[in-house]
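A.,

Following up on our hallway conversation. C-alpha cells first:
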C-alpha cells in the first residue's frame, strides 16, 4: 500500500514520543510506501483532492532503558511531488490541534478524496462533528458534572455547587489553558474573563475529580475497541497529567468500568468514522475524546511490550481488502 500521513512539519515531531512517527515506522516495517504532507499543502484540482507529497524513509527508534532512542537523522525525504490523493491507498489525518479555520478547511478538502479508492482516517466529517472536549457530553453516564457556557454567572453558580472545578478551553490540547478553579479564589473573575475572551467564547467547566492526582488514563481505541492504555500521573505541584507538561507515564490496565465506557462510545465512533481515537478517563469518568491526533502509542508499547502501531496499520490493510 501507499499511505500518506498529514502531519505537522516532520522536523518538529518527536520520534520517541509521537504516535504519528510510530505509525509511519509500522507502515514501513510492513512493507508499505510512506508519504507525508501537511494540512497546508492540500488542494482541490478538477474536483479531486491533491497534495504536495514527499516520500519518506525512517530509521526506527530502539528501546533503551525506560525510553525510546532515536538517531539524529531519523528521517529522509525525497523531492516533493504534487499528486491526487487517490494515488494513495490510505490517508491518515494527524495534524495537531488547534482545530481552527485552516484545520476545518483542510477537512473540507479531504471530502474530495474518493472513498472507493482511498480510505481517509479519521473521517473528515467525523473530525468536524467531534469537538474533542464536547463529544463526551453525549455520554451522560460516563462524564462528570460538566457545563459549557460563556456566561460568568452560570460558571460562578456551578462552582458554588461543586466547590472545585476544572476550566477547559474547547479547542485546546496537551493541557493548554486548563485551569483549576476554586470558589472564593481572588483570581476567579479574571480567569473566567480571560478564558471566555470577555464572555464571547464558550468554555467547559467540569467538576474537579480528586482521583486526577492518581492519573489521567489514556485509552487507545481502534474502531471502537480498546487496544491499550497508559496512565499519566501529574508531577511536582502540577495538577495536569498531560505528558507535555511533565506528566509521568505509567503502566496500567483497562478496568471493567472503562471497558463499559468504550462499549458505550463504540457505535457512535463507528457511525462518525472515528477509527483511531484516544479517550481520557479520570477516576472512571470520561473527560475527553481525542480524535485529531491522539498520542500515547509509544508509551503503551514501551510499558506493555506491545506493537500497537503495527496493529493499527494492519487493520487499515484489512479495511482495504474489504
Ligand atoms: N475533571 C477533571 N478533574 C481533575 N483534573 C482534570 C479534569 N479534567 C482534566 N483534568 C486534568 O487536566 C488535564 C487536561 O485535561 P483534558 O480534558 O484531557 O484536556 P487536554 O488534554 O486536551 O488539555 C488532564 O490530564 C487532567 O490532569
Ligand atoms: Mg487530554
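Then the amino acids I'd put at each of the 322 positions:
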Amino acid at each position: 500500500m501507499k499511505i500518506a500521513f498529514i502531519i505537522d512539519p516532520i522536523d518538529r515531531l518527536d520520534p520517541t514520543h509521537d504516535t504519528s512517527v510510530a505509525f509511519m515506522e509500522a507502515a514501513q516495517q510492513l512493507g508499505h510506501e510512506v508519504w507525508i504532507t501537511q494540512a497546508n499543502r492540500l488542494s482541490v484540482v478538477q474536483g479531486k483532492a491533491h497534495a504536495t507529497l514527499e516520500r519518506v524513509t525512517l530509521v526506527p527508534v530502539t528501546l533503551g532503558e525506560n525510553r525510546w532512542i532515536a538517531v539524529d537523522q531519523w528521517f529522509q525525504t525525497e523531492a516533493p511531488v504534487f499528486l491526487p490523493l487517490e494515488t494513495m491507498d490510505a490517508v491518515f489525518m494527524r495534524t495537531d490541534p488547534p482545530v481552527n479555520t485552516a484545520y476545518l478547511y483542510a477537512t473540507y478538502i479531504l471530502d474530495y478524496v474518493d472513498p472507493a479508492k482511498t480510505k481517509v482516517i479519521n473521517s473528515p466529517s467525523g473530525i468536524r462533528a467531534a469537538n474533542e472536549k464536547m463529544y463526551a457530553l453525549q455520554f451522560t453516564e460516563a462524564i462528570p458534572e460538566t457545563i459549557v457556557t460563556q456566561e460568568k454567572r452560570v460558571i460562578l453558580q456551578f462552582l458554588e455547587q461543586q466547590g472545585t472545578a476544572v476550566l477547559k478551553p474547547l479547542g485546546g490540547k496537551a493541557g493548554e489553558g486548563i485551569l483549576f478553579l476554586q470558589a472564593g479564589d481572588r483570581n476567579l473573575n479574571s480567569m473566567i474573563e480571560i478564558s471566555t475572551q470577555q464572555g464571547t467564547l464558550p468554555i467547559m467547566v467540569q467538576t474537579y475529580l480528586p482521583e486526577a492526582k492518581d492519573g489521567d488514563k489514556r485509552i487507545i481505541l481502534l474502531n471502537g475497541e480498546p487496544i491499550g492504555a497508559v496512565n499519566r500521573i501529574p508531577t511536582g505541584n502540577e495538577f495536569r497529567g498531560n505528558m507535555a507538561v511533565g506528566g509521568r507515564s505509567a503502566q496500567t490496565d483497562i478496568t471493567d468500568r472503562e471497558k463499559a465506557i468504550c462499549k458505550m462510545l463504540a457505535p457512535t465512533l463507528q457511525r462518525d468514522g472515528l477509527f483511531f481515537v484516544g479517550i481520557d478517563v479520570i477516576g472512571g469518568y470520561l473527560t475527553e475524546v481525542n480524535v485529531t491526533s491522539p498520542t500515547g502509542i509509544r508509551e503503551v508499547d514501551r510499558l506493555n511490550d506491545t506493537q500497537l502501531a503495527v496493529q493499527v496499520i494492519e487493520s487499515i490493510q484489512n479495511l482495504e481488502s474489504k
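The first strand starts at residue 2 and ends at 6. Curious whether your intuition agrees with the design.

B.
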